[in-house]
């Protein structure tokens, strides 16, 4: 009987890991199933561009996984039973239950909608559906229409500058609870503020949004920031499915793992992407990011292959070197950080930084959508080996 590997999520971490597993494991011994809510690979790092009006390349997962032997299930994960080793999914054909021997959990994150009114009255940019909804809303606004972006993180900055550049007839504003880019070095923050001025973006710093109503974000001091479209980019949250399943998690719901990305409570479950709680080389938790998805996905894949085939497990460095932030299409910042994740004085800025960022995004999308890289590796057979929980003991 084949060893059943189920991969939950086909974002940057899940899709890349699934393709790598299919390339390395022998199909006579392993059955790989990928569960994803959408039929396409969605470049999440480009969703702010999609919202602003730029088209994204169409990458159907059926085509991505063609010839790999991977079974694709387009469905939403409803529940996980780690004791019975089953996943409940809901798709067009109804509700189904999938059994697994090894699980790779890569469901990622979504917008944090805990602030009252966010779910009902805003457009997050963490999912394609909401990004398309925002674009449709912006298309209906006449010149002078007001757009408010809430948040001060990388996604908020990229979104507000992209929208201001692509939609110059709109009045674009940003509300953030702190100082915009206060965590950047002096040169990088100067570049950011010059972009804000160039695009005519109105800043509301030190403004915490306490709730959202139709047509307005209400600050903690009662100030109403009125807008025709409110974009929510004030943080991300992981799915509650992991915590509900009984997996060991930290308070925010991310799954605790060992250095090989195995769940510390259920080592047949491996984790990659935003749902991982793991310490990086600097002793700090890896942040939710595309770079972290790459590192954790590579480590989880290496561990699954090693645990199931008896091969040695390579170690992927869990490093975080900096923040790469687009400021529209022709400007960007690459801010290096030190071992304590604090901004260094040097930063790459301007057109060259924008070109490098675009190249990184292009390479990431290409590598995910070409899992076999034109050839198949030597495929490893399953062997009888100590189970991960025995090895951990």
UniProtKB/TrEMBL annotation:
EC number(s) reported in the record: 1.6.5.-
Record key words, sorted: FAD, Flavoprotein, Oxidoreductase
Pfam families reported in the protein's UniProt record: Pyr_redox_2 (PF07992)
SUPFAM superfamilies (UniProt xref): FAD/NAD(P)-binding domain
Required cofactor(s): FAD
Top-rank EC class of the record's enzyme: oxidoreductase
FAD/NAD(P)-binding domain: residues covered: 4-281
Family as reported in the entry's similarity comment: Belongs to the NADH dehydrogenase family.
PANTHER family tied to this protein: 64 KDA MITOCHONDRIAL NADH DEHYDROGENASE (EUROFUNG), APOPTOSIS-INDUCING FACTOR 1
Name the record gives this protein: NAD(P)/FAD-dependent oxidoreductase
Annotated organism of origin: Nocardia rhizosphaerae
């Amino acid at each position: 009987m084949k060893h059943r590997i189920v991969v939950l999520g086909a974002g940057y971490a899940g899709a890349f890991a699934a393709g790598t597993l299919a390339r390395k494991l022998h199909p006579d011994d392993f059955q790989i199933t990928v569960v994803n809510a959408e039929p396409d690979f969605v470049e999440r790092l480009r969703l702010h561009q999609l919202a602003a009006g730029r088209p994204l390349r169409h990458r159907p997962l059926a085509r991505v996984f063609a010839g790999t032997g991977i079974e694709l299930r387009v469905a939403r994960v409803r529940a996980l039973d780690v004791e019975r080793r089953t996943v409940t999914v809901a798709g067009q054909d109804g509700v189904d239950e999938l059994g697994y021997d090894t699980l790779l959990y890569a469901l990622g994150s979504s917008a944090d909608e805990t602030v009252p009114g966010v779910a009902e009255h805003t457009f997050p940019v963490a999912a394609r559906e909401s990004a398309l909804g925002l674009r449709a809303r912006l298309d209906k606004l006449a010149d002078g229409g007001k757009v408010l972006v809430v948040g001060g993180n990388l996604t908020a900055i990229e979104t507000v500058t992209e929208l201001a550049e692509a939609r110059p007839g709109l009045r674009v504003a940003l509300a953030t609870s702190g100082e915009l880019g206060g965590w950047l070095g002096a040169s990088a923050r100067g570049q950011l503020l010059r972009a804000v001025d160039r695009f005519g973006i109105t800043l509301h710093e030190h403004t915490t949004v306490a709730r959202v109503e139709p047509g307005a974000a209400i600050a903690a001091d009662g100030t109403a920031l009125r807008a025709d479209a409110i974009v929510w980019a004030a943080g991300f949250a992981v799915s509650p499915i992991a915590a509900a399943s009984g997996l060991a998690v930290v308070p925010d719901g991310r799954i605790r793992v060992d250095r090989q990305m195995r769940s510390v409570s259920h080592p047949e479950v491996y984790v990659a992407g935003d749902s991982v709680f793991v310490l990086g080389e600097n002793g700090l938790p890896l942040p939710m990011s595309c770079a972290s998805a790459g590192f954790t996905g590579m480590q989880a894949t290496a561990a699954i292959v090693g645990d199931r085939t008896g091969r040695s497990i390579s170690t992927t460095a869990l490093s975080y070197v900096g923040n790469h932030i687009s400021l529209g299409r022709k400007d960007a910042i690459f801010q290096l950080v030190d071992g304590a994740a604090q901004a260094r004085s040097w930063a790459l800025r301007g057109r060259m930084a924008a070109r490098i960022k675009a190249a990184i995004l292009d390479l990431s999308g290409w590598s995910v959508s070409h899992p076999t890289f034109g050839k198949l590796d030597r495929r490893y057979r399953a062997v009888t080996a100590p189970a991960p929980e025995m090895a951990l003991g």
